[in-house]
Design goal:
The protein is an alpha/beta fold. The protein contains six helices and 16 strands.
Length: 273
């Protein structure tokens, strides 16, 4: 049995402040017995202001949030998923998730593949691809707490990614997110439960919540879902830490009962006429 903890944040535009708050919650999670602690997407900063991004964000090698949280993971001896950090690349940003081991070293990192380019109506629109360089590689990490498949937020809508990760051996799938309120209300829980059922995996989804200083609103409800699709924990809408205990035998049992990961078939595309 592994105790995990989902950290729920309302991140703002000051990375140092966000890091300090995140560290406080990580320490709270470790004090509560968590061996695997997860933070949300955009842990270091949420803003639409490109001038602030240019001023306050860093490359991975120089990012102070990453360095500080690596040191905290090593001090506490915990596995830590930094859900994602916005880090500078050559001409854009990467939305990059980091899995850090109990020694403080980065075990795996993943750049969000699917860009959130949508028109939600009522004046709410997003063009993530304008500033974020999309990734192109699925990432699975073998750890002593299980095989962990990484993803970020909008990836959740693309079932094939999770199926490939599960077929490669993932028992735990991570979905750090900053879901909008309308899409969260409509789709967040049902998509997480669907991905868990389809893959026979635990889904761990730490989330941003509330109204951020730049006016953006996120849905919250960090969720942990078991391999049979049952919601085990819900972080509601306030900042804080939500604990959940994982039994990876449940993943094996779900896949034994419904062995659909073994039943893929090749087929012809539909005729269009």
């Amino acid at each position: 049995m592994t105790r995990a903890a989902l950290v729920q944040l309302t991140a703002g535009e000051q990375p140092d402040d966000n890091c300090a708050k995140t560290e406080k919650f990580i320490r709270e999670a470790a004090a509560g017995g968590a061996e695997f602690i997860l933070t949300p997407e955009n842990t270091n900063m949420i803003t639409f202001d490109r001038a602030l991004q240019a001023e306050r964000l860093h490359s991975e090698a120089d990012d102070p949030t990453l360095a500080r949280l690596q040191a905290v993971a090593a001090e506490l001896g915990v596995w830590l998923l930094i859900g994602s950090l916005a880090v500078k690349t050559h001409d854009k940003l990467a939305n990059r998730s980091f899995l850090i081991g109990p020694d403080g070293l980065v075990v795996a990192k993943y750049d969000k593949i699917h860009m959130f380019d949508v028109e939600l109506g009522n004046g709410e629109s997003y063009r993530e691809s304008a500033i974020i360089q999309a990734g192109n590689q699925a990432v699975l990490a073998q750890t002593d707490i299980g095989a962990v498949g990484l993803s970020v937020c909008y990836d959740l809508r693309f079932a094939g990614l999770y199926r490939q990760l599960a077929q490669a051996g993932a028992q735990i799938l991570t979905v750090p997110a900053a879901f909008t309120v309308p899409t969260g209300q409509a789709h967040w829980e049902v998509l997480l439960r669907a991905r868990a059922i389809e893959t026979g995996s635990y889904l761990l989804a730490p989330a941003q919540t509330g109204t951020h200083p730049n006016g953006r609103k996120t849905y919250g409800h960090s969720l942990a879902v078991d391999p049979w699709g049952k919601v085990l924990a819900d972080g509601a809408t306030t900042e804080g830490v939500t604990f959940v205990d994982l039994d990876l035998n449940q993943a094996a049992e779900a896949r034994r009962r419904i062995p659909s990961l073994q039943h893929d078939k090749d087929f012809e595309p539909p005729n269009v006429g």
